[in-house]
Amino acid sequence: MYKDIATPVRTKEILEKYGFSFKKSLGQNFLIDPNILRNIVSHAYLTENSGAIEVGPGIGALTEHLARGAKKVVSFEIDQRLLPVLEDTLSPYDNVTIVHSDILKADVEAVIAEKMADVDDIMVVANLPYYVTTPILMKLLNDRLPIRGFVVMMQKEVADRITAKPGTKEYGSLSIAIQYYCTAEVAMIVPKTVFMPQPNVDSAVIRLIRHNEPPVTVIDEDFLFVVTRASFVQRRKTIFNNLQAGLQNGKAKKDEILAALEAAEIDPKRRGETLSIQEFGRLADALHPHFA
Ligand code: SAM
User: Residue 77, annotated ligand binder?
Assistant: First the structure.
């Protein structure tokens, strides 16, 4: 077993050796606590036949723990300055591929086909760059990749919104967008002190496991998300008022919305935050003939 990258002393040594300066704009807050890293990886239940996809390896702190626990690791890193660093720090591991790319522009499906044809399952495990947490998750979920789930660190406030249940103030269109595809739970709360530099916000690790079947079957998935987004534009407004203002740029017909709410058995005076995914599904299907 090699000396961990993520101790404060070794991290400082590596940063000094390469004269590396952090870019705040790339969300560069590196982990410097091997215990936290072991804990994160344990939540992914990797086996010796698993594949792990990482977004943003930094200097390889989490990557090496994935390399020890999985068969294959592919890490996407946007910052070219980190490539020589990673070549050095990860040299003991022959099962890691670093892809120099913005994850949002990468053809992840092709990379999986090329590098992970022989794994049993694939987990995304990452300490995400916080400025693009939601776009990264939505891309990896929408692309219909063969991914079993995610164990990912993010800003705690976003983790709370993603995992929120109906009837809470955190519940909204993001909760539904993610929970449509996955079960979602907070796995760990992480203190600021384990990062270098320390972020300004609190952090949490969430675990998402893909559903075999979505929790509700709808005519048109994209339209379900149009309806959920419209329903939360003004949280204090009723579902009826939000739909009237939000569908077809506010030109939605009152009668048609009321009829759809009735068909879906939803009281027009309710607020979006009280509706379950199943209720949103019924509502989207009832609105679909008029507004999709
Ligand atoms: N995994 C390392 C750790 O835990 O110490 C670094 C995590 S740091 C929070 C986020 C990493 O993501 C940085 O290395 C940053 O350069 C990289 N990054 C930022 N935006 C990215 C993007 N769009 N695509 C790929 N990597 C990105």
Answer: yes
Going from the Cα of 207 to the center of ligand 1, the distance in angstroms, rounded, reads 19
Of 210, 245, 266, the residue that ends a domain is 210
Q: Is residue 33 within 6 Å of ligand 1 at its C-beta?
A: no
Task: Tell me how far the alpha carbon of residue 54 lies from the centroid of ligand 1, in angstroms.
Answer: 9
Ligand 1 binding pocket includes 77 (Cβ within 6 Å): yes
- Given the cut 0.90, state whether the ipTM is greater than it: yes
Distance CA 251, CA 257 (A): 11
Geometric angle at alpha carbon 173, from 169 and 174, rounded to 5° = 90
pLDDT tens digits, 52-110: 999 999 999 999 999 999 999 999 999 999 999 999 999 999 999 999 999 999 999 99
**Above 80 in pLDDT, residue 202?**
yes
Who contacts 281 (Cβ-Cβ below 8 Å, separation ≥6)? Answer: 215, 216, 217, 218, 224
In which domain, by residue range, is 137 found? 8-210
Which of 176, 210, 244 is where one domain is finished? Answer: 210
Q: Is the CB of 27 under 6 A from ligand 1?
A: yes
pLDDT at residue number 195: 98
User: Does the annotation list 31 as a binding residue?
Assistant: yes
pTM: 0.95
pLDDT score for 1: 60
Question: Is the CB of 104 inside a 6 Å radius of any atom of ligand 1?
Answer: yes
pLDDT tens by residue, 121-153: 999 999 999 999 999 999 999 888 999 999 999
At 270, which CATH number? 1.10.8.100
What domain count does the chain have? 2
Q: Are residues 197 and 149 in the same domain?
A: yes
How many A from CA of 129 to the centre of ligand 1? Answer: 5
The order of strands in the sheet holding 121-127 is 96-100, 72-77, 50-55, 121-127, 149-155, 203-210, 182-190
